[in-house]
Amino acid sequence: MQCCFGIGSCATSVQTSNYVRRMKVLDNWKINDPALAHHFDRSNMVVMIDQRPLVTRSGQSIELVIGSTENICHTLADYGLQASIRNSVLLDALPGEDNEFTPLFGCSLKTLEPPRDSGMPADEPRKRLAGVLGGSLINLRFAMLTMTSELHRNWVAKMQTLAKWSNIYNYCPKCSSSLRMRHSKTGASCSLCDRVYYPTISPVAIVLVHDESSEHCLLVRHSGSMNGVYTSIAGFAETGESLEDAVRREVAEEVGLEVDNVRYMGMSQPWPMPDSSLMTAFVARASMNDKLDIAPDELQHAGWFNKNEVRLAIQCTDADVHLKGMLSNKCEPNVLKYVPPSGAIAHRMITFWANS
């Protein structure tokens, strides 16, 4: 009798899923510089110029422009910009020919503004370059909030994070020797002591607070935010603190309430601004009878809203795909008009609660 546990003939009869194959290929490319370099000229690429992702717009859809690395590099060279494996980051592995995978790189570049006496608007060279590349450039935050595909948003977050980290992380914090950056930009090793460093990720807890009946939720408007836009409470986890403890502390600090029944909502989101963070969503319960005591340096307003009020705000937000109404800032300061756009994890959290 043949054994069907562990390594044996049964193990080889099970076909490996494409996802598992892709992850193994990516894992190899992350650490195997020669293998990744071998594929560079035949890879695909997405571009960010002056921290503005290159995208296409079709109706309400906003997506990244994905092109061949060879063509993009040639076009960039015509504009005096160099894209190579040295200043690109590994984002993903895309399906290729013959059931193989092709690397997807991201390249973040900076342009030079035209001379002041040229009479050319400062953003004109960027617009021309974007047009030649087959798209347009949009603000990084706007891209993260409005892009249609979660996968594309995650690529943008990864590109911004790895490009920024690889540009500033040049020397070993332990011995001050130079670092050898991997082609993938997912790690760097010290040239002297061989210590390996990886990009830093800051954990963030974001929480949807509801009352005992779950018919009302607590939303806040941050200082400096647009009028009428309310969101969930969020904050960085501190050293020696669990994410659940971070939820309790942040709510206490920002609105003066004690919460219980803290639960993970089963969703998270990478966020590249101002630095790389991973936002993890929670739901928690508080009493509406307790007095709100908002932190004035953090918030301008906080309030309890019922599901009908929140649903109306979601409808207004979803109808304003390009944020024109939201950015006009014509709403009354302390009236719920919008929630964060669809690309934000807060939108998913609030929508999930409102429809439950």
From TrEMBL:
Keywords: Hydrolase, Magnesium, Metal-binding, NAD. It holds the Pfam family NUDIX. Residues 199-327 form the Nudix hydrolase domain. Its cofactor is Mg(2+). It comes from the Eukaryota. Gene3D superfamilies: 3.90.79.20, Nucleoside Triphosphate Pyrophosphohydrolase. GO terms for molecular function: hydrolase activity; metal ion binding. SUPFAM superfamilies: Nudix. Its EC number is 3.6.1.22. InterPro entries: NudC-like_C, NUDIX_hydrolase-like_dom_sf, NUDIX_hydrolase_CS, NUDIX_hydrolase_dom. This is NAD(+) diphosphatase. It comes from Steinernema hermaphroditum. The lineage of its organism: Eukaryota, Metazoa, Ecdysozoa, Nematoda, Chromadorea.
